[in-house]
Amino acid sequence: MSKIEMDPQHWKEEVLKKYPTKIAKKRAKSILVHDGETIPQEIQANVRTIPGIITQRGCTYAGCKGVVLGPTRDIINLVHGPIGCSFYAWLTRRNQTKPPTLDSPNFMNYCFSTDMQDSNIVFGGELKLKQAVREVFQLFQPKSIGIFSTCPVGLIGDDVHAVAREMKEELGINIFGFSCEGYKGVSQSAGHHIANNQLMKHVIGLSDKAPAGKYKVNMLGEYNIGGDAFELERIFEKCGLTLISSFSGNSTIEQFERAHNADLNVVMCHRSINYVAEMMEKKFGIPWFKVNFIGADATAKSLRKIAEYFEDQELKDKVEEVITEELKIVKETINRIYPNTKGKLAMMFVGGSRAHHYQELFTELGMSTVSAGYEFGHRDDYEGRRVLPSIKVDADSRNIEELTIERDETRYNPRKTEQEMDELRKKGIDFNGYDGMMADMAKGALVIDDLSHYEMEKLIEIYHPDVFCAGIKEKYCVQKMGVPLKQLHSYDYGGPYAGFEGAVNFYKDIDMIVNTSIWKMIKAPWEAEPIIEAEYAV
């Protein structure tokens, strides 16, 4: 089938035919053909994966320990559970960090676990956990320890919070626990929420010391994959912006403690961190808005948005100077690469906001994103935050503690008056807003939540995209089908891809990937051998 003849609605109907009736009915709600309307269609998202379907998702524990707390170099992340869980979330290849000196604490390369055994499951593991905390404190003298629950802990009832309180009193450092058992939520998204809650309860606001600077900003939802945060720190410094804290790429416990001193929160990954942005606004009066530093044009737009917020002509002029200087190299690269990539097809099924953000880079390359979706997105990630009032709270969501945040009367300080906020809104700054992924997708594109392995195979069989972006679980399956896969969870050791220099890196990498002839020599299974198919008898 040629690319012109592709009919996404036909693809959807053919895929659903292979499922049993009840499953087909459920999956149909999570697969949309984007109609291109201003108000996006309703998509089913953040529901449990159907048993038996191979999913891309991770667990609640992975979202809490692996994503949010993992990139923090001077907190010891102690996993209370079997050693396999800790190894699974050991992020030495994903997140990077730069300690200021060789003597500065850096625990990123270590893997800490209580290594629960059968006897701990039977008789309880709290004594073992206490001993592990004492041992890790004696060896490393950390400023803080986080204790993460895995599935067995929740099943046997070990109280990590009680242990944390006892050890905090005994050792005199900040120790706190996370009830992030893997089964607790629909996906790793629940872990993000749990991590955000505990940071707000136990860390944010502990220190009123803040670095000197005129324009103080927190960057939320940036995890320094492939060194992205290094590039953004470079740009911020060049523009004269003071980065108070980063959640959580290249971060420290001290950054989290002082985050309430910022004048503005900018949110990269909406799904993983919007909770913290909302709570900090309510408690400390810090406004927030959504940004995107993936793509050169998107980076320039976000920098101008930040400069507009501070309403300082000196900052605006400096930002324009930086953009002009940086775009020169970007345009030179695009002019050389664009003819090689124009008209090629991309697909993206990744977490957070990445399936949305990276469409900016592909657009700059002249490529079309014909299908995209999230692993752990909610409806507002697809349709925009306007749908939040209509989202029903289900049993899985009730598993997650909802914090009641009150205004901190001693430190609450609205950074702008209501009149100033209204003036900025008139200039196009959308505070507390996010239009979602579908608003930027082309008409006729397939939007698929929680893509299954079977659906992935059928997408490739019919569309045969030039590049498929996903994670390690999909990587080798896709490549055996003769299609190159680019990991956007760990970058395949590439990157950075954020900011201006990151955009140039991405252009070059994608040019090499989509124009490598080896993929044309690989035959997919359905091309190399006959396939036996069957249908359910009713």
Chart the SSEs and their pairings:
Blueprint lengths: L7 H10 L3 H8 L2 E3 L26 H10 L5 E6 L2 H6 L23 E2 L4 H6 L2 H15 L3 E6 L1 H6 L3 H12 L2 E5 L9 H15 L13 E7 L5 H12 L2 E7 L4 H6 L5 E4 L2 H15 L3 E3 L5 H15 L2 H29 L3 E6 L3 H11 L3 E7 L4 H5 L11 H4 L19 H9 L19 E3 L4 H11 L3 E4 L1 H9 L4 E3 L11 H16 L10 H4 L10
Parallel strand pairs: 2-3, 2-4, 4-5, 6-7, 6-8, 8-9, 10-11, 10-13, 11-12, 13-14
Antiparallel strand pairs: 1-12
Helix pairs in contact: 3-9, 6-8, 9-12, 10-21, 13-14, 14-21
What can you tell me about this protein's structure?
Helix 3 (60-69) packs across helix 9 and helix 6 (126-140) runs parallel beside helix 8 (160-171). The strands form three sheets. Strands 1-12-11-10-13-14 form a six-stranded mixed sheet, with helices on both faces. It has a four-stranded parallel sheet with strand order 3-2-4-5, with helices on both faces. Strands 7-6-8-9 form a four-stranded parallel sheet, with helices on both faces. The model has no long low-confidence stretch (mean pLDDT 93). With 538 residues, the protein is of the alpha/beta class. Strand 2 (75-80), helix 4 (83-88) and strand 3 form a beta-alpha-beta unit. The two termini are 31 Å apart. The protein is globular and about 65 Å long. The chain is built from 22 helices and 14 strands.
